[in-house]
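# nightly structure sweep
# worker-07 picked up a monomer target from the shared queue
# config: single-sequence mode, recycle default, output format = structure tokens
# input follows
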Amino acid sequence: MSIQILIILFLTTTCILSSYATRGKFIVDDVDYTTFSTTLKPDLNLGKDDDKGEFPRKQLADCNRQIYKSSLVSNASQAANRRLNHTTGSWHANGPEFAGLVVHGGFTGGRAKLAIFAPGNVGDKQYSSALISVESGEGNDYNLIQVGWTVNPCLYKDNEIHFFLYAQGVNSQTCWDSHCSDFIPTAGDTALKFGDILAPSKVGQIDQNHLELSILKDDRSGWWFIIANGTIVGFWQGHYFSSLNTQATTVRFGGETYTPAGGDSSPPMGSGVFKPGWPSLTSYMEDVRINPNIGAGFAPENPQTIETRCYYVADVGNTKWFQGLGFFFGGKGGKDQDTCVY
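# output follows
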């Protein structure tokens, strides 16, 4: 791409941002984002394939095809409705599994504070994530944005913990990290960037490493923003989505794993340990809120609790352990009752 085209793109985007800055403001966690022209500068280098071949588009397409497009998207509602099953007999992992909190209605986003743990061994065609997910629509109109941390060897070619973004937009198009169409990453040397490796908490330590995340929709502009640790990481201007351009009808908070069809054993979720009441050992989320564009948002009332075959949820809303609304989640995974249940 020539220098002239880059300059035109930068000036065009800056004008859009400056225009938006005069239209309104929203406040999240006492951070005033009124002056977008100075705080949000698009980084035109992010999301491009580099000479080293990191995150090439073929790799993204292969992982989407192998994992998400044929599994998570088509089976998301099934995964959310599966219940913990302690029946005897063997079970072969197949598809996504989720454990956490789900709220239904009409929302402009969600936010939470996620403890960062290393799940342990995750297979080449598996993933294990802790995430916030906003979703809306059905069929080709089904849209979602997921943000959090993940171990995904297929995508990142390692077993490290990565800060990630996954989205599905118009006509079921899917994307990862800063490779998303119409997603504008914002510049900043100290800010997290999608794909960055995160340091895990040490199991047994009192102070855990955390990731504070918000996905929020600004009512005035209709744009979706991703905020990590108080800094805007990037935003969409509404062209990528269809049903999410109106609102999110479902917000999920929790852990999600995937095992391909015929897989012998599902991967660990969270820390890979589930001992409620032990935040130094068990993965958790706290300060869970919805509609974070209204002040700092508010805790959902009576959220639905989802558990699946190998993964569990406990102590929802127990303020003895958590700041605000929180919960423990996770499990060691496995292939049958004997290997899943503690």
